[in-house]
Amino acid sequence: MALSWAVGAMSTTTMESVPLTSREAASGILGSVSLTCWIFLLVPQLIENYRNGNAEAISLLFLAVWFIGDITNLIGGLWAGLVPVIVAIAVYFCIADGVLITQCLYYKARNERRAARHHRRHSSAEVPDPLTPLLGRRFSDNLGLPGSRRRSSASLPGGYSRRSSEAEIALAKIVEENESGWSAWLKNTASVLAILVIGTAGWAVAWQSGVWSPTPQDHNGGVDMATGAQILGYASAVCYLGARLPQIYKNYCDKSCEGLSLLFFILSLLGNLTYGAGILCHSTEQGYVMTNLPWLIGSLGTMVEDITIFVQFRLYAAQSPQLTGAVV
Fold first, then answer.
1. 244 phi/psi in degrees, rounded to 5
2. Region annotation Disordered: residue ranges (predicted)?
């Protein structure tokens, strides 16, 4: 979630008035859409974790490395002297990361406590009373043997009832699959359209109010930036590129993406795409591109990893009927 585009698009107002060209307007709109994506990015995953009552699907290492990337990005923004609104947004990113990490740790600790209590109750219930007659103890123990209930139900003439219940469950899954697939498709599409509208409207308001204005380009297209800020930019790019690898590996090991919010990764892809495009729309001069290279690498490079996660959603959805149709 880098903010380097602000150096060109939201810098302090220059003395001379710069005409608004279509390319500069596109850069401003794309940058605004990108910021809108980042602002709402973590909300879908927070809601998904709340609905599931756990956060087992998301890799804590993924969040930790991403958090480090946002911290280095914030320090780099302060070092580069970006305008206050951009620094404030960078602070928001760090706070949002902290909220998601805290939620994941909370659910992990809570569910571990519940599992431990359940295990203790189950263990104490299985301890036989020494006063219980041996015959009665054998009879009661047999009721708790793994598979004993399945064998008894299969031997009943009503084995038909077991098969019928399985058929009902399968039918319910098919109905749930169709409903969740359509609702997820509509939700994701509507969310993307809303982000585009909000981002464009935000740019228009910023332009009309004078918060945003076209920025003149230097002859070499470069932007002055401290060397330390540039180094932190590369550090944040490395963090952003490496953050998704633990999540991709976890999905591969679990052979599932259940519990992950697809909209979370859709907004990430859209944010990175509009971010990189916004930089290149502003200028493709060598000096400017080299100045913004670490942020371009961090944004456009992670798109490949986001697409990999989309492939995992589709691949593992074929193995888990509950997720089929969830991919836009």
1. -75, -15
2. 140-161
pLDDT at 247 over 70: yes
Model pTM above 0.70 = yes
Q: 133-182: per-residue pLDDT in tens? A: 544 444 444 444 444 433 344 444 445 455 545 555 544 454 444 445 67
Numbers of helices and strands, H then E, in the chain: 12, 0
Q: Is the C-alpha dihedral spanning 237, 238, 239, 243 positive or negative?
A: positive
One-character DSSP codes across 85-104? HHHHHHHHHHHHHHHHHHHH
Residue 174's Cα: distance from chain center in Å? 27
Residue 154 neighbours by CB under 8 Å, 6+ apart: 162
**Residue whose token pair is 């974790």:** 49
pLDDT digits (tens, 9 = 90+) for 120-131: 787 766 555 555
pLDDT of 189 > 50? The answer is yes
Radius of gyration of the chain (CA): 27
How far apart CA 34 and CA 272 sit, in angstroms, is: 7
Q: Three-class SS of residue 289?
A: helix
Residues 6+ positions from 23 with CB-CB distance below 8 Å: 281, 282
What average pLDDT does the segment 228-255 reach?
91
Mutual angle of helices 262-282 and 43-52, in 10-degree steps: 170
> What is the overall mean pLDDT for the chain?
78
Rounded Cα distance between 283 and 78, Å, is 23
Task: For residues 315 and 256, give the distance between their C-alpha atoms in angstroms, rounded to a whole number.
Answer: 9
**Where are the chain's structural domains?**
21-113+172-211+221-323
Q: Stretch 278-292: mean pLDDT, rounded?
A: 86
Q: What's the sign of the alpha-carbon dihedral 124, 125, 126, 128?
A: positive
